[in-house]
Design brief:
258 residues, alpha+beta, DNA polymerase, domain 1, Cytidine Deaminase, domain 2, five-stranded mixed β-sheet, 38% helix, elongated, disordered N terminus, disordered C terminus
C-alpha cells in the first residue's frame, strides 16, 4: 500500500519521520527536539516549522510550538506568506495568540532589516532584478509610500541605500535636491530611484513619470547618472527603463561589472 507524501509543513524528527501531532515538546525524545537538533545539526538542519517553534519557545496544551508553527505555515501558504501576514492575521491561527504573533512579526522584521543592512560591498547591480529582489520584500507590503535612492560607484557597486521620503511620493512634494544629497556626499557615479505603491499595482503613474523626468534633468546638471526608476507593488515591480524611458546610459545596469 502506497504512503501519502508528507506535508511540506509537517515537522520532521531527527530520523526524518514526521513528529507525532499534538505532542508537547517535553514529550518528544530529546534527539528530536528543535533545540537539541540545533546543537547537533546547526541551524541549517532545522525545518521552517522548527525554527519558528524555537522563536515561540512553547506551545499550548497538547500542541507543541512546532505543531503550531506547522499550522501557521499551512494557513499562510508557506514561509513567504507567513512573513507577509500581519500580527492580527497570525493571531487567528488556533493557539498562536497576539503574544506569539508579535514575536514572529518582530523576527521577520529583524530579517528584513538585516537584508537592508547587508554589506553593500557584496551588492552589484547588473539589471533591475538585482535591485528588486533585495527591496521588494522590504517595500512590497508597506502601508504608505516610500522613496529610496540606491547609490552606485562607477562599477555599479552599491554604496548606500537611503530612504528620502515617506508618505505621498508626488513630484509636487518631493524636493529633487534631496534625491541627490547623499549621492553628492558619497561622490556616487549614479543613482537608481525605487518607490512603492501600497495599492499593490506597480503601474507607473503620470506623477512617477514626471518625477523621473525632473530627476534625470537634475542628475545631468550634477553629473550623476540616473540609471532607472523602479516602482514596486506587492509581489511585482516595473522598471521604467524597461518601459522605454530614456535614461542616462545606454546599458549601465545590464553590463557585468569587472
Amino acid at each position: 500500500m502506497s504512503r501519502s507524501p508528507k506535508s511540506a509543513f509537517e515537522p520532521l524528527t531527527a530520523a526524518g519521520s514526521v513528529a507525532a501531532p499534538g505532542r508537547a515538546i517535553r514529550e518528544v525524545p530529546l534527539a528530536e527536539r528543535p533545540r537539541e537538533r540545533l546543537a547537533l545539526r546547526g541551524v541549517g538542519g532545522l525545518t521552517s516549522a522548527e525554527l519558528i517553534g524555537l522563536v515561540w519557545g512553547s506551545g499550548t496544551r497538547g500542541r507543541s510550538a512546532v505543531d503550531l508553527a506547522g499550522d501557521a505555515l499551512a494557513r499562510h501558504d508557506g514561509l513567504v506568506g507567513l512573513a507577509r501576514a500581519t500580527e492580527l492575521e497570525l493571531a487567528t491561527v488556533s493557539g498562536v495568540g497576539l503574544a506569539k504573533a508579535a514575536q514572529l512579526v518582530a523576527a521577520f522584521e529583524l530579517g528584513r532589516r538585516l537584508l537592508a543592512d547587508w554589506p553593500v560591498a557584496r551588492w552589484t547591480i547588473r539589471g533591475p532584478a538585482d535591485v528588486a529582489e533585495r527591496l521588494i520584500l522590504q517595500m512590497g507590503r508597506l502601508e504608505r509610500e516610500e522613496l529610496r535612492v540606491v547609490m552606485l560607484d562607477t562599477k555599479n557597486h552599491v554604496l548606500r541605500v537611503a530612504t528620502v521620503y515617506q508618505g505621498n511620493v508626488s513630484s509636487s512634494l518631493v524636493r529633487i535636491g534631496e534625491l541627490f544629497r547623499d549621492a553628492v556626499r558619497l561622490n556616487a557615479a549614479a543613482i537608481i530611484l525605487v518607490h512603492n505603491h501600497p495599492s499593490g499595482d506597480p503601474t507607473p503613474s503620470p506623477d512617477d513619470l514626471h518625477l523621473t523626468a525632473e530627476a534625470l534633468a537634475a542628475g545631468r546638471l550634477l553629473d550623476i547618472a540616473m540609471l532607472d526608476h523602479l516602482v514596486i507593488g506587492h509581489d511585482a515591480y516595473v522598471s521604467l527603463r524597461d518601459r522605454g524611458v530614456a535614461f542616462d546610459r545606454a546599458e549601465p545596469v545590464v553590463r557585468v561589472a569587472n
